[in-house]
Amino acid sequence: MEIIIQPTPEVATSVAARVIARQLRDKPDSVLGLATGSTPLLLYRALIGLKLEWGQVTTFNLDEYVGLAPDHPQSYHSFMRENLFRHLKIDPENIHIPDGMAKDVPKFCARYEKEIKKAGGIDLQVLGVGTDGHIGFNEPTSSLASRTRIKTLTQQTRRDNSRFFGSEGAVPYHVITMGIGTIMDAKQIVLLAFGEQKAKAVAQAVEGPLTAICPASILQLHPTVKVFLDEAAASQLQRTEYYRWVFSNKPEWQRD
Fold first, then answer.
1. Is 125 among the domain residues?
2. Is 82 a residue of the active site?
3. Structural domain includes residue 212
C-alpha cells in the first residue's frame, strides 16, 4: 500500500489522474472500476481535461441505489452520465452500472459478476472511503469475501448521503454494490480520501488492524494499492513522514 499525501485535494487528484492516464496509455482497452459520490468528482474533471482515448475502455461502476431509475437525478447512472461519460468518446455498450430497478436482484448481481469476468477483470478500481470505513457500499461487518449483492445502508451512511437528497428520509435504504471480494480482484486500486471527516477511517484502514468493522482495512492485503490523501485526511496517520519520504524517493521508472 502506497500512501501519497499532498497539500490539497486538487493536487492529490492530479497525481491520481496521472496514474489512470498511464493505465490507459499502456492498455487502451483497460477495464476500469469507477466510484461515485463527492470524492471522485475532481478526478473525473481532471480525466476529462487530459483528453485521453476512451474508445476501447470498458467501465464497471461500484454501486447503485435500489429503487432509483436511471433517469432519477440522484441515481448513479445520472451521476456518471453528467460528470464523466457525456464528456468522453466512450462506447455506451462498454458502460456497466448496476440496475437499481432490477426485478430479480440476486440474479442481476450474479450476472454483473459474470460480466466483469467476461471483460477480463478490472484493471484499475477507483475507490473512495466512507466515514465509517466502508468501500463501495460494503458497510462495517460486511464479509471480506463478499461479491456483488444487495446491502442495507447504515444510519450513518444515510445521514452522510442526505446532502444529495435534501433530507435523510429521501435516501434509499438499499443498494446494489460490488462486494469486497470483487473489489480485491482488481489488479490495481486507487483510493482517494479528502477532508478531516475521513481522517479516522483512513487511519484505521491504513494503520489499524485488518477487521470487518473497517472494510477498507482489507486493502492492506492487496498487492497494488495507491491511497491519495490531502493533509486533513492524513492528519491521524502516525507515519506521515515515512510516507512522504517514500513518495519523494521513488525510482524514476515508478514515477507517472
1. yes
2. no
3. no
Q: Which of 139, 160, 185, 230 is catalytic?
A: 139
Catalytic residue among 134, 160, 185, 230: 134
Specify whether 134 is catalytic. Answer: yes
- Given 64, 132, 185, 230, the catalytic residue: 132
CB 30 within 8 A of CB 63: no
CA distance 119 to 240: 38
252 catalytic, yes or no? no
Residue 60, domain member (yes or no): yes
- Number of structural domains in the chain: 1
Alpha-carbon distance values, 37 to 1, 78, 161, 179 (Å): 23, 12, 9, 18
- Can 99 be counted among the known catalytic residues? no
Grid cell of 161 as nine digits? 448521503
Is 104 a domain residue? Answer: yes
> pLDDT 10s digit of each residue in the chain, 256 long?
999 999 999 999 999 999 999 999 999 999 999 999 889 999 999 999 999 999 999 999 999 999 999 999 999 999 999 999 999 999 999 999 999 999 999 999 999 999 999 999 999 999 999 999 999 999 999 999 999 999 999 998 899 889 889 999 999 999 999 999 999 999 999 999 999 999 999 999 999 999 999 999 999 999 999 999 999 999 999 999 999 999 999 887 777 6
CATH value at residue 179: 3.40.50.1360
Strand partners, 141: none
Domain range enclosing 31: 2-195+219-228
